[in-house]
Specification:
The complex is a heterodimer of chains A (110) and B (900).
Chain A lengths: L3 H15 L5 E2 H11 L8 H13 L3 E7 L6 E6 L1 H25 L5
Antiparallel strand pairs in A: 1-3, 2-3
Chain B lengths: L3 H9 L6 H24 L4 H13 L3 H7 L11 E2 L1 H4 L2 H18 L1 H30 L11 E7 L13 H10 L3 E16 L6 E8 L3 H5 L5 E2 L4 H6 L3 E4 L1 H8 L9 E4 L2 E8 L15 E4 L3 H5 L13 E6 L5 H19 L6 E6 L10 H32 L1 H9 L4 H30 L2 H5 L15 H27 L3 H6 L7 H37 L10 E7 L7 H17 L3 E7 L11 E3 L1 E2 L11 E7 L3 H5 L3 E4 L13 E5 H7 L9 E3 L4 E8 L14 E5 L7 E8 L7 H11 L6 E5 H44 L1 H9 L4 H33 L12 H27 L3 H7 L1
Parallel strand pairs in B: 4-9, 6-8, 16-21, 18-20
Antiparallel strand pairs in B: 2-10, 2-11, 3-4, 3-7, 3-10, 5-8, 6-9, 7-8, 12-22, 12-23, 13-22, 14-16, 15-19, 17-20, 18-21, 19-20
Helix pairs in contact in B: 1-2, 2-3, 6-16, 7-14, 7-16, 7-18, 7-25, 8-13, 14-15, 14-18, 14-20, 14-25, 16-18, 20-25, 20-27, 20-28, 21-24, 25-28, 26-29, 27-28
The chains are: A alpha+beta (110), B alpha+beta (900).
Chain lengths: 110, 900
């Protein structure tokens, strides 16, 4: 598992990126992160929700309860305009960082 | 399953969060844990393992509490949003509403079924009757171009059958056709019985033909699908050509395209097939179908006697296409003057005029129009009752769902959304009902054929539900949805939150109960109208069976039609054959007597009217005496059981070489020789003077409710007519004699046909058709109305009981007996019913008046029918009230009061 500090720094961006195209609920977000990272990145209920609530408090995502027929109601999170802006900035920062790493140490994220 | 909520709450306890916020967090996290737990189970963990792993993750590093501590939530709890995932997309929203509605409908299948059934039956009944009205009355000739402009043209005679549909001669037709200005074409036509034979066939087949003027197909705008139709030249030159009906072409010629130019034999004469009429074209006489068409000038070839050149022989019907801009009144005026002037100029037995009528009024005597109008009105009543019922059930449901709706409103749902939701439910209900109705109509439309009597020449009806019928059904459906959906929806959305929540979901407002009571009253009133209409028809059907028809015991009379022309027999041979036929039939065992007659009373058609001179009778100005003529053999009055009130009947001695004789009926004697003895007086129906030798009792000739009309019987031997019906009075069941009679016919001439064998009882079915059809259909609709109303009343009273549970409990607590409680509910049901009956009586009386023309010999406010309807309604009300009333007595006072 990656160092906890690296993980914390990157997770904000991961969550924002996951709710960028459509609203998702917490469990779905956790599962997607795990699946797309082939299990390298893992969140559990205790680590995910404080993060989600913090993002929400900062106005980067917005959560609301949604009822669907035949299902329990769930809280769905979607990206706000402010979140969109931050996501864009973070993507650029990380890209620059990877380019720098590549130049220095020959690491290519792709 | 582990209690995740508790686990989470325990951990969050130290945070002292605002309770509502905490509840939301607990809910959200608990769901997550539950999902995780299920996931682990799915991966093969034991429940205990899964529980431990999940719990460990929750507690890991104390992250949750540390992470949460940093927040202070300032916002209030959020409102719930209904499915925002698709909320902004109208199609998605509709889909949402639709699925939600479906779920709600599934939740109470009983109510859904009742609603769908009431709408389905009501719409089905309406669609069925509309299909009948459309195909039988409004648009019986769909293939005729612009058929709304067609009118019936007939000669009018003051003394004819009320100037109804008197025919005219061919020469008169030619004059009219050439001189009239009101029409874009006038055609003449009449029905004829024919024997059709192909190639070397030993025996032909009897078919129905129509003799028509040469412009027939052109004026109707009906082109041939194969070959061509007639030309005026063919009429002028009397070319032996024929156009086949599509059915006949398919049946006899297998739809062979090479039929054009082929020779066929009609009544023994050679004809050339020149064309085939389009499928579904059966002619313009709404009640009849024709197998083939022949130019009018070929009549002498087919019937022996020449009717073409006799101006006094009136045998043709007229149909014309009204010119654009010419009104019926103008056409009538022109034709009246034209007919009279021509008649005077030609010196024929005078025609006083001509009448032009709407096609559907041509045979007003056997017309379906008033009957179907009545039916349509009653089915509309059933639809109204069903709508009221559905509105009632939906109101009850809306009331039951008051709390659900209030909560949704409290949680921030928009009123418009609630209304939309409820309207979607109503629309869905009525669409399902509408589909059920169309299916029902598809199944039920054939009943009109099933119920119709055996006619000698059945009409081939195409009872297709066309787009108009379906459109009407659809409109009725949508209208129903709007009417009965909107009221409950508006009311539900108006729910006063505080009151509704306080009242624990019973949301009882007195205005709503009033509306529901009003709906029940309306249903009862409308049901009474439907029941009384049905009752009047039932009574009149019974009365019809009791009317004195003027002849005895129809149950032992066998009728066998025949036509000597079709066997190629001319006058002398025909008369000889008639004698032999009677002689042999009378010799059969089980036959008490037999005779021949040109007219069988009380069926469709078969009547002939002739301009008549009455000796010693002074014509009033403009008076024209046209009297029905009936040609009979000896023993006719004995066979039929028609009493001779004076003189004698026609006997075997009244032969062609003897003195020409006539027997008149009482109506004739009364009309032309009032206060005198008619015996010895003379009449002339175009065959020379005949001496009156007897007076026969009046009878019913065309309809059961007709007034007596004059009629003259002549001797077959003195006035030969080849198309005639053998009447056999039998000792036993007349049906049993048909086969024996067939061998007698064959023994006389191999080509002598038996046409339309039937018993007199079957034959008379035609005369009572409207009454019996009306009685069967209307009582069906009456019962339907009653059932729907019973369901409605049951619903209202059940609701009444639920609503007043507390009151009933208190009453019982302070000592009311079960009987008293039951009476409380029964009283409520009967009160509504009685008010409904009072309101309905007025309407029922009006409808009774409107139906008078259809109802025989029964007073329009027939007390028996009326009382019967009222009693039926009260019985229904008691039955429907009984179950809720019993339920009221089962209220447990303790439980009911505690519940509050």
């Amino acid at each position: 598992m990656l160092d906890r500090e690296v993980k914390r720094g990157s997770t904000e961006m991961l969550i924002l990126a996951l709710v960028e195209d459509r609203p998702r609920h917490g469990y779905e977000i956790a599962k997607l992160i795990e699946r797309r990272s082939d299990g390298v990145l893992q969140f559990n209920v205790a680590s995910l929700y404080p993060l989600l609530y913090r993002l929400e408090e900062r106005g980067l995502i917005h959560g609301r309860w949604v009822e669907k027929p035949g299902q329990r109601r769930r809280r769905f999170y979607k990206l706000t305009a402010a979140g969109q802006k931050i996501l864009k900035e973070q993507r650029k920062t990380w890209k620059d960082f990877f380019v720098a790493l590549d130049r220095v140490a020959g690491i290519n994220p792709a | 399953m582990p209690d995740w909520k508790k686990e989470i709450s325990d951990r969050l306890d130290t945070l002292n969060l605002e309770p509502a916020k905490e509840a939301e967090i607990v809910e959200e996290l608990a769901q997550h844990l539950e999902d995780r737990y299920q996931e682990l189970l799915g991966e093969g963990c034991s429940p205990e393992e899964a529980r431990r792993t999940t719990q460990r993750e929750l507690s890991e590093h104390d992250q949750l509490v540390t992470g949460m501590r940093r927040f202070t939530w300032r916002r209030n709890p959020e409102t719930a949003v209904l499915e925002t995932a698709v909320g902004r997309n109208p199609v998605g929203r509709l889909w949402q509403d639709f699925r939600y509605s479906l779920r709600m409908l599934r939740k109470s299948p009983g109510v859904t079924l009742i609603i769908v059934l009431s709408i389905g039956l009501a719409i089905g009944a309406n669609t069925t009757v509309f299909t009948w009205l459309e195909s039988l009355v409004l648009n019986p000739t769909p293939l005729v171009k612009d058929n709304g402009m067609l009118v019936a043209v007939n000669s009018a005679n003051k003394d004819g059958i009320g100037g109804e549909a008197d025919p005219f001669s061919y020469l008169t037709y030619l004059d009219w056709r050439d001189k009239t200005q009101s029409f874009d074409g006038l055609i003449a036509h009449t029905i004829i019985r024919l024997n059709v034979r192909q190639g070397n066939e030993p025996q032909g087949e009897p078919v129905w033909g129509e003799i028509v003027s040469g412009n027939y197909f052109d004026v109707l705008g009906v082109p041939a699908v194969l070959g061509r139709t007639f030309s005026l030249d063919e009429e002028r030159s009397a070319a032996p050509v024929t156009v086949l009906n599509y059915r006949l072409w398919q049946r006899r010629f297998g739809g062979d395209g090479s039929v054009i130019g082929r020779q066929i034999r009609l009544n023994g004469a050679q004809f050339t097939v020149i064309g085939v009429a389009p499928e579904g074209f059966e002619g313009v006489l709404a009640a009849y179908s024709h197998d083939l068409w022949i130019p009018v000038t070929l009549q002498p070839v087919l019937q022996g006697r020449n009717r073409i050149s006799d101006r006094n022989d009136r045998w043709l019907q007229g149909t014309a296409r009204l010119k654009r801009g010419v009104t019926l009144v103008q056409a009538n005026e022109e034709m009246r003057l034209l007919a009279r002037n021509i008649s005077q100029g030609r010196g024929e037995t005078p025609i006083t005029g001509a009448v032009v009528k709407l096609m559907r009024e041509r045979f007003s005597g056997v017309g379906f129009y008033p009957l179907f109008s009545a039916l349509l009105a009653v089915t509309a009543l059933v639809l109204l009752i069903a709508c009221a019922n559905v509105a009632n059930l939906l109101l009850a449901r809306a009331a039951a769902r008051g709390k659900e709706i209030s909560i949704r409103l409290a949680l921030g749902a928009k009123r418009s959304h609630i209304i939309r939701q409820l309207m979607t439910e109503s629309l869905l209900l009525s669409l399902i009902g509408g589909c059920a109705g169309l299916l029902f109509a598809r199944w039920a439309k054939g009943f009109v054929i099933m119920l119709s009597p055996p006619t000698p020449q059945p009409r081939f009806w195409s009872l297709e539900m066309d787009w108009r019928t379906i459109l009407v059904a659809f409109l009725v459906t949508v209208f129903t949805a709007l009417v009965f959906g909107l009221v409950p929806a508006l009311r539900a959305a108006k729910t006063d939150l505080v009151t509704a929540l306080k009242e624990e979901g019973r949301g009882a407002s007195s205005s709503r109960s009033r509306l529901r009571s009003a709906l029940i009253i309306a249903q009862v009133a409308l049901s009474l109208v439907a029941l009384v209409s049905a009752g009047l028809f039932l009574r009149s059907m019974r009365e019809a069976q009791r009317i004195d028809v003027g002849f005895s015991d129809p149950n032992h009379l066998l009728l066998l039609g025949t036509d000597f022309n079709m066997a190629g027999l001319k006058r002398e041979d025909g008369l000889a054959a008639a004698d032999r036929l009677l002689e042999r039939v009378r010799a059969l065992s089980g036959v008490s007597s037999a005779s021949l007659s040109t007219m069988v009373p009380l069926g469709f058609g078969g009547h002939a009217y002739t301009p008549t001179k009455v000796e010693g009778y002074v014509l009033a100005p403009d008076e024209d005496v046209t009297i029905e003529r009936v040609i009979v053999s000896d023993d006719y009055f004995e066979t039929m059981g028609v009493p001779i009130v004076e003189g004698r009947g026609i006997t075997a001695q009244d032969r062609s070489d003897a003195q020409r004789v006539a027997v008149v009926n009482e109506a004739f004697a009364k009309r032309y020789y009032p206060g005198q003895d008619p015996i010895g007086k003379r009449t002339d129906q175009g065959q020379g003077w005949a001496t009156v030798v007897g007076v026969a009792k009046n009878g019913k000739y065309r309809e059961l409710n007709e007034a007596p009309s004059p009629l003259i019987y002549s001797s077959l031997q003195q006035w030969y007519v080849p198309a005639i019906t053998l009447h056999i009075r039998t000792v036993n069941n007349p049906k049993m004699l048909t086969e024996t009679a067939r061998s007698v016919f064959a023994g006389i001439n191999a080509n002598l046909p038996i046409l339309d064998p039937r018993t007199m009882t079957e034959h008379m079915g035609a005369a009572t058709f409207r009454q019996s059809f009306g009685a069967v259909t209307l009582s069906t609709f009456g019962v339907l109305a009653l059932l729907i109303t019973a369901v409605g009343l049951y619903g209202v009273l059940s609701y009444f009981v639920t609503q007043r549970r507390k009151e009933i409990a208190i009453r019982m607590a302070i000592g009311a007996t079960p009987t008293q409680v039951m009476n409380l509910v029964l009283r409520q049901g009967l009160l509504l019913t009685l008010i409904g009956i009072i309101v309905g009586s007025g309407f029922a009386w009006i409808v009774g008046r409107l139906m008078q023309s259809q109802v025989l010999e029964v007073s329009k406010s027939d007390p028996l029918t009326f009382i019967g309807g009222v009693l039926l309604l009260i019985a229904m009300a008691t039955a429907a009230s009984f179950v809720p009333a019993r339920r009221a007595t089962k209220v447990d006072p303790l439980a009911a009061l505690k519940y509050e």
